[in-house]
Design a protein that fits this description.
about 180 residues, mainly alpha, Arc Repressor Mutant, subunit A
Length: about 180
């Protein structure tokens, strides 16, 4: 049903008019009570403060490498590079300070589309498997999912860890290691 006549502020917003800052918040006439200063409208903004509900933009590994290359330019400042990539100056600074780790990930052929580095459930087992995987590829061996799962189980047993190599784990391991 109808909650009664709409407050004047809501009518102004619906017409596309900007309410004056001096307009008092309208009390609800009926229906559900509202907190002081709030109005049900699509724009939900009555004060002079901008509506900033933006989240931090997370850059992929490839974009982070590009940002580091851009920072190497002698004419580039931290704020100009941050603006170019659509991130904050402090985030660009954090990426710049983690330069060695980012470039090491890039050189080890990590997934260039990943935005966060996530560890799997078998940390040291996964690292050992990846090392073995690279060595096996260098020897020209043909590898498949069941071979990788069996080797992961073998490595887990030798390290004394309780670990089960499932199909889901293998799929995520492949994504983590490109």
């Amino acid at each position: 049903g109808s909650a009664g006549p709409k407050p004047e502020v809501v009518l102004k917003l619906e017409r596309g008019e900007e309410p004056h800052l001096g307009d008092p918040p309208a009390a609800p006439v009926g229906g559900t009570p509202q907190a002081p200063g709030t109005v049900e409208s699509p724009r939900r903004r009555l004060s002079g403060c901008p509506a900033t509900t933006s989240k931090r933009k997370e850059l992929s590994l490839a974009d982070r490498v590009k940002l580091l290359q851009a920072l190497e330019s002698p004419s580039a400042s931290l704020s100009s590079v941050a603006k170019l990539f659509g991130i904050s100056k402090s985030q660009a600074g954090r990426i710049g300070r983690r330069r060695e780790q980012i470039l090491a990930d890039w050189r080890t052929n990590a997934n260039p589309l990943r935005k966060r580095r996530r560890e799997g459930k078998g940390g040291e087992v996964e690292d050992a498997l990846f090392t073995w995987f690279r060595q096996a590829l260098a020897r020209g061996e043909r590898l498949s999912g069941p071979i990788l799962k069996a080797k992961a189980q073998e490595l887990a047993l030798s390290s004394g860890r309780d670990f089960e190599a499932t199909d889901g784990w293998l799929c995520r391991w492949k994504m983590r290691h490109n």
